[in-house]
Design a protein that fits this description.
17 strands, Rossmann fold, 34% helix, ornithine cyclodeaminase, domain 1, 2 domains, 7-stranded mixed sheet, 8-stranded parallel sheet, alpha/beta
Length: 352
């Protein structure tokens, strides 16, 4: 893509938006989902560790690293629910993909938009394996920054065409319905979460408040539903009543991380869960019958960001939707780093 190995391509927010729109949002989500599933299927090839988190009263800042032995990737991401009150994003992120053999970065990218896309793609990949095949109606409780991406991913991968929306802020629901208007959905704005889940095949909970909330009560999860629990993603932040968990077959990304951050932090440490990669590879069953309640306890894992960075790097080929960053020192002699300074000074690099 870039012949100078000392130049790192950087995908800005503007370039990411142009890339997504050039590809098309639903096609982008579908193709990204393919990369996510491919990496889940080779799960055992990856280094895996729970994300490194720094928690505060206001939110959390995290690093999410992984490697498949050929490439190394990490994401920096925050989660600060109060930010929306100040006109800021709840989640912001950037990521890096590097070559393991040299340690040189090969891509740096914004990941605020990309995280929303990969989260939605992962949700839809999980639902493809866990929801009933005839699922067409989805309730989305929490209509903030993630909601439209979730809706479009489920449309692209599962054929969802009916949305029932609810948020404690009616303006958020109006925003979501407006943004999705004309994109192939029948949309109903609901006055309560209870109303939203009526007749739903899939329930997506994607709220932002950092608290142990009860977005879904036990009576709201009927037989056969698939629950896509996205919003509970750090210690002390949950969305589902504990009794729902006890009635569900629970599927997770990486168990050691989800035990600390997911809905299952409410359960005993030995409560049985199934890692999603095992379903995808046929090592464990997913949905067994039409009345089973399946729950994807999604907290986000580093392999998903790795997949997203791989996809973006491949998609950049033949485009100019990146900037060239002069990030890597390139002395004439690798051991003479100081000499670079001397030569720069001789060429007048010091400002007057």
């Amino acid at each position: 893509m870039i012949p100078n190995l000392n130049i790192v391509p950087f995908v800005s927010v503007d370039h990411m938006m142009k890339l997504v729109l050039t590809v098309g949002v639903e096609r982008f989500l579908s193709e990204l989902a393919g990369y996510v599933e491919e990496d889940f299927r080779r799960w055992e090839a990856f280094d895996k560790t729970p994300r490194v988190a720094s928690h505060s009263a206001e939110g959390v800042i995290e690093l999410m690293p992984t490697s498949d032995g050929r490439n190394y990737g990490f994401k920096y991401v925050n989660g600060h629910p109060k930010n929306t009150r100040e006109g800021r994003q709840t989640v912001t992120a950037f990521g890096v993909l590097a070559d393991v053999a040299t340690g040189y970065p090969v891509l740096m990218s914004e990941m605020t938009i990309l995280t929303a896309l990969r989260t939605a793609a992962t949700s839809a990949v999980a639902a493809k394996h866990l929801a009933r095949p005839d699922s067409r109606r989805m309730a989305i409780i929490g209509n903030g920054a993630q909601s439209e991406f979730q809706a479009l991913a489920f449309k692209a991968l599962l054929g969802v065409t009916e949305l029932r929306l609810h948020d404690i802020d009616p303006d958020a629901t109006e925003k979501c319905a407006r943004n999705l208007g004309g994109l192939g959905f029948a949309i109903t704005a609901c006055r309560s979460a209870q109303e939203a889940v009526e007749g739903a095949d899939v329930i997506t909970t994607v709220t932002a408040d950092k608290q142990c909330a009860t977005i879904l009560t036990d009576n709201m999860a009927g037989a056969g539903v698939h629950i896509n629990a996205v919003g509970g993603d750090c210690p002390g932040k949950t969305e589902l009543h504990r009794d729902i968990l006890l009635r569900s077959d629970i599927f997770v990304e990486y168990t050691p991380q989800t035990r600390v951050e997911g809905e299952i932090q409410q359960l005993a440490p030995d409560h049985p869960v199934t890692e999603l990669w095992r379903v995808m590879t046929g090592a464990a069953p997913g949905r067994r019958d039409a009345r089973q309640i399946t729950l994807f306890d999604s907290v986000g894992f580093a392999t998903e960001d790795f997949s997203a960075l791989r996809y973006v790097r491949d998609r950049l080929a033949g485009t100019r939707l990146y900037q060239e960053l002069d990030m890597l020192a390139d002395p004439d002699e690798p051991r003479d780093l100081f000499g670079m300074l001397l030569r720069a000074a001789a060429l007048g690099a010091v400002p007057a």
